[in-house]
Each structure stands twice: as C-alpha cells, then as structure tokens.
Design a protein that fits this description.
The chain is an alpha/beta fold. The chain has a single domain (2-141), classed as Response regulator (Rossmann fold, 3-Layer(aba) Sandwich). The protein is built from 5 helices and 7 strands; from the N terminus they run E-E-E-H-E-H-E-H-E-H-E-H. The strands form 2 sheets. It has a 5-stranded parallel sheet, with helices on both faces. Strands 1-2 form a two-stranded antiparallel sheet. Helix 2 (42-50) packs parallel to helix 3 (77-85). The relative contact order is 0.19.
Length: 145
C-alpha cells in the first residue's frame, strides 16, 4: 500500500495482545505487507502520531493508517481520534476503529469525530480485508496538502 509513491505505515493501537496478533494476521491475509507499528496505550501512540509536543508536525509528511481500539488502559480511543482529527497535520490520516463496542451512539460519535471505518471485534475477516483495501485506494488518491 503506497500513497504518492510513499510507503504507508500502519499504526496499531490495541492493548489486548491476542487481538493485536489477530489484527496483524488479518492485515497480512488481506495482502498488505506494510510495516505495522504497535502501541498498547494511547499516550505512546499519540507521542508517535502527534509528537511529544502534540503539534502534529512529525506526521505532516507521513502516511499513516491508524487502527484504533476504543478501550485503552490510559485514555479512550475517542479522545485519541478527536486529537488526531482536530490536528491540521493529521486530520487527513485514515482511522479505522476496531472495538468490541457496537453501541450505536458510540459508533455515531466516532463517525462524527472523523473515523473512516468502524469495525466491531471479533473482526469479520472479509469486512476487515475489504476495509483495509478500500483505505489503500483512499491512500492512492489522497492529495498531499
């Protein structure tokens, strides 16, 4: 998966090791060989995505696809989503929500905050592969600001 000739890095924010392994397996099965950078909590994930100063500058030329669990030990995934989508440098990055919550209000809230795809766990493999492929297409047409 490339964007404007650049490799896309997949950032996986998931504190459950079993789920993380399963997600990675599904990404690979979908034929996506991009690097996956795993995080088990929101703080270190945000350090990577927005930088420790939270300015987002570090990601202005990066192509990241973020796989985000909503239930993390230190903060909620919706907070992370909000921070990513409200930052001018990262708001265009696609975010896939992967969570066990299928509460309609929570789903709507994620879409309102700018989530691109919302997938409930346990992940249905075909839906997941399809979503990742669609995001690959999304990257290939994504305009660099």
């Amino acid at each position: 998966m490339k964007a404007a000739g650049k490799e896309v890095t997949i950032v996986m924010v998931e504190d459950d090791e079993g789920h993380a392994r399963l997600i990675e397996k599904n990404v690979r099965r979908a034929g996506v060989n991009n690097e996956i950078v795993p995080f088990t909590d929101g703080t270190t994930a945000l350090d990577f995505i927005l930088g420790q100063d939270r300015s987002g500058e570090v990601s202005k030329d990066r192509y990241l696809l973020i796989l985000l669990d909503l239930n993390l030990p230190d903060m909620s995934g919706t907070d992370i989503l909000d921070k990513i989508k409200s930052n001018p440098h990262t708001r265009r990055l696609p975010v896939v929500i992967l969570t066990t919550t299928d509460d309609e209000r929570e789903i709507q809230r994620c879409y309102d905050l700018g989530a691109n795809v919302y997938i409930t766990k346990p992940v249905d493999y075909d839906n997941f592969a399809n979503a990742i492929r669609q995001l690959g297409l999304f990257f290939s047409v994504m305009q660099v600001p």
